[in-house]
Write a structure and sequence with these properties.
Largest sheet: 5 strands, antiparallel
Shape: elongated
Number of helices: 7
Helix content: 25-40%
Structural class: alpha+beta
Number of strands: 12
C-alpha cells in the first residue's frame, strides 16, 4: 500500500480548517446577526402597526369628544334637569300649553359586538364594562294649534342634544279640530366621563328647509273636518221593464281617493296610521297588517307610511290620499316585493 502524498495531506488539512472556520463563523457570527436583523424587522413592523393604531385611536377620541360636546352634562341629575328644561322651553316658546315633560334615569346601552360571533374572553371583557354610554328617554306632551305643534316638533328635531326622536303623535281636539294634542318621544345620550361640565342648552331654530315643510302641512290642516257636501235634489226616472241589472261597481281608485293620511305614529316595533275619509268624515286607525279599501299597511317610520295595493308597495306622507301613489323605495320596496 502506497503512502498518501504530502500535497494531498496538506489539501485535506486545509479543507478541514476551512470547514471548521466556516462552521465557527456561521455559529458565532452569521446566525446571531440574522436573528438580530429579523428581530429588528419585526420590531419595525410592530412599531408601524402601533403608529397606525394610535392614529386611529386619535381619530376615535376626536369623534367621541365631538359627540360628547352635544350631551347635557357630567352629573346625572343635571343632565336630566337640562333635558326636561330644554323640552319645556321649546314647547313654551312655540305657544303650546298644558305641558307635561317626563323622563327616566339613564339606561346603559350594551356594546353591539356582544351580538356577534367573537371569543368568549372578549365578550366577558365587554360585559365587564356593562355599557359604553347611557341614554335618557323622555316624553313631551302638550296641546296647541297645529302650526305650533309642527314647529315644536321641528325645533326638537333640530336640537344637537336630541340624539333621537323615536316617535310622535298629533291627535286633533275640539269641535273645529284646529288644536292638536302633541306627544314626542325623544332620547339624549349621557356620557359622564366625556361630557362637558358647563354650558346650558338653548333652543335653536329649525334646520334650513324645515320651515317650508311644516308650514305647508299646517296650511292644509288635514285634521279639519271637510265641509258637508250638498246633496243633489232627488228625481224620479221611469225605467221600462227589462232584464235585471247588477248595481254598478265603484271604482277602487275612487274609493282609495276618499281616504287621506292624517297622522303617523311609530314607537319601537309598533306603528299606526290615522286615515280620514274626506267623503264621510269617518276616521280610521290602521296598524301594521290592517287594511281598508284594498290597501294594506306594511309599515311606517313616523314620517312615511307604506301600503300594499294590488301586490305593489306605495309610500304616502300626511296629506296625501291613498290614490296619490308613488312606488315605495329602499326598505319599503324590499319588504313589499321580496315576500
Amino acid at each position: 500500500m502506497s503512502s498518501i502524498p504530502p500535497w494531498l495531506k496538506f489539501a485535506i488539512g486545509g479543507v478541514a480548517v476551512l470547514a471548521a472556520g466556516w462552521a465557527a463563523y456561521e455559529r458565532l457570527y452569521a446566525s446571531p446577526v440574522r436573528a438580530r436583523l429579523e428581530a429588528i424587522q419585526e420590531a419595525k413592523s410592530a412599531a408601524q402597526r402601533l403608529d397606525e393604531q394610535l392614529d386611529e385611536a386619535a381619530a376615535i377620541r376626536r369623534g367621541l369628544r365631538a359627540i360628547a360636546s352635544t350631551t347635557l352634562g357630567k352629573k346625572e341629575d343635571l343632565a336630566i334637569a337640562r333635558f326636561r328644561d330644554g323640552l319645556t322651553a321649546i314647547a313654551e316658546r312655540n305657544g303650546l300649553t298644558g305641558l307635561v315633560v317626563s323622563s327616566g334615569p339613564p339606561t346603559l346601552v350594551p356594546n353591539p359586538a356582544l351580538r356577534e360571533r367573537i371569543s368568549t374572553a372578549f365578550k366577558n371583557r365587554l360585559r365587564a364594562r356593562r355599557g359604553d354610554f347611557a341614554v335618557i328617554h323622555g316624553r313631551l306632551k302638550a296641546s296647541g294649534p297645529l302650526e305650533s305643534a309642527l314647529r315644536t316638533l321641528a325645533v326638537v328635531q333640530a336640537q344637537p342634544w336630541a340624539h333621537r326622536v323615536s316617535g310622535f303623535s298629533m291627535v286633533p281636539v275640539g269641535k273645529d279640530r284646529e288644536w292638536v294634542e302633541l306627544q314626542i318621544d325623544v332620547s339624549t345620550m349621557f356620557v359622564s366621563d366625556l361630557a362637558p361640565g358647563d354650558g346650558e342648552p338653548l333652543p335653536t331654530d329649525p334646520l334650513p328647509g324645515h320651515e317650508s315643510v311644516w308650514r305647508t302641512v299646517a296650511s292644509k290642516n288635514m285634521f279639519r273636518n271637510p265641509p258637508p257636501r250638498e246633496s243633489a235634489p232627488a228625481r224620479v226616472v221611469e225605467v221600462s221593464a227589462g232584464p235585471e241589472k247588477k248595481p254598478p261597481v265603484r271604482d277602487p281608485v275612487a274609493s282609495l281617493g276618499d281616504w287621506r293620511v292624517a297622522g303617523l305614529i311609530s314607537t319601537g316595533s309598533r306603528c299606526e296610521v290615522t286615515l280620514l275619509n274626506t267623503r264621510t268624515g269617518e276616521r280610521l286607525t290602521v296598524t301594521a297588517g290592517g287594511a281598508t279599501s284594498g290597501a294594506t299597511l306594511l309599515w311606517s317610520d313616523g314620517e312615511v307610511a307604506v301600503f300594499e295595493i294590488g301586490g305593489v308597495g306605495y309610500e304616502f306622507v300626511p296629506g296625501q290620499t291613498l290614490a296619490e301613489r308613488r312606488p315605495a323605495r329602499g326598505r319599503s320596496g324590499s319588504s313589499t316585493l321580496g315576500d
